[in-house]
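Service request form, structural biology core

Requester: graduate student, group of Dr. S.
Request type: structure prediction, single chain
Budget code: on file
Notes: please return the result as structure tokens.

Sequence provided:
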Amino acid sequence: MPEDSQKLSFLEKAGYSAGDAAANFVFMTMILFQTSFYTEVFGLSARLAGTILLVSRLWDAFFDPVMGVLADRTQTRWGRFRPWVLWTSIPWAVVMVLAYTTPHFGRTLNIAYAFVTNILLMTLYSANNMPYSALGGVMTGDVTERAKLNSFRFVSVNAAQFIVGGFTLPLVAKFAGADHNKEHGWTLTMGLWALVCLVLFLITFFTTKERIQPISKEKTAPGQDFSDLLQNFPWMVMFCMTFTHFAILSLRGGALYNYYHYYADKAALYDWVQKLGLTAPAGSPSAGGILEWLGYIVHADRSDLANSNVADVANSIINMIGTGVTIIVILLSPSLARTFGKKAVAVAGFGLASVGTLAFYFLSPANVGGMVALTILIAIVYAPTIGLVWAIYADVVDYSEWKTGRRATGVVFATIGFALKLGLSLGSSSFLWIMAGLYAYDTKVAPTPENLQGFRMLSSIYVGGLFGVCAILLAIYPINKRLTIQISDDLAQRRKDSAP
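Core staff response, request fulfilled:
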């Protein structure tokens, strides 16, 4: 069997997927909670928090292409990309905890601490996740196997997202204790997640193998790599789509946290949680059990919910519902790509996600059922796109090699990573800046009706419009199912012809 069509074992697919599960313990914490951590726990203003997020993630975005060039030129007995997963695992775990620890050095030094720890975390994220992403493109050249590999990857991603979205806030509240010390709660929770990340990275390193080598052995200068990209129209489209896509995720994460914690009616959330059997009277003794330990029992009376964890619990359950549906749909979606092609499925998924997100605007604060229903709908239509988008990136690498005869896996994934980080930085920062500039958001006082309208608009109209932009960009992406098969066959023949 030619090496570029080699089938991957279940163990290797599952082991590879563990690495992205680990990355998502950091990624989803950033997406869902970092803006609120900096404003509500660390004590920064919205504008200052937005600036810190922008600067650190812009540094990370510019570091990605450097990392791509470095990874492409790494030569070890383990390969080019795989060793980086090992080398960064322990520093990642340490800095992950430091980034969510609140020191008491004074305002100026605290701000510097936030800058430094966030930049370090983002640097390690790039040094780990860029080579990890490229690793998937050199484990096999078979397009069907790649689709399966990415399905495994994103099942694990969504399992991690299920855990982060469903358990982080209740655990923070649990570890915060009776005195509501959220600083302590965040440090302990992230320490737990850091340990999980370390184990998962080691699993990825020890279960995977690099197989695909460039057809051309000629070494190229970095300038040639970037020159090839500027002639690669599919790369240009996916660069713009990735920027928009990840701006959506970070903007939406910050907006939805505030949507559920401030716009949604707490009494309605309490009634919904009560139907699930997750409430107890205020002051009642702990009943014990796993749900109590995880912080999933709301000890409060319906008439006094201001300082309760009802929003944390409801938000977490809704996150888990959406993620659980996503995992199920991902498992059922590989046949969609085989039947209709990756491009067609992705266009439909982003387009329908746009419609579902826009519908959030029309929900009243007490319509918790509608919030849950739309979350499920959006998860169903968006889920098939998750693995497919990353498989499309590998197709872009193949297209470049097909056109130029030179394979630059690391540079393609690094520049896509640049767009990803740029989108993340502007998404999170834009949420805070828009709230401060257009809706007079002040983190030191209780949200005003104007603030609540901002949370509502950003969660629906802004995010829904950006989903629509992604659908348009994917519609003009030129590599369809027929061309994907042609490129794969041509490259397989070239490798066969060049084999000794």
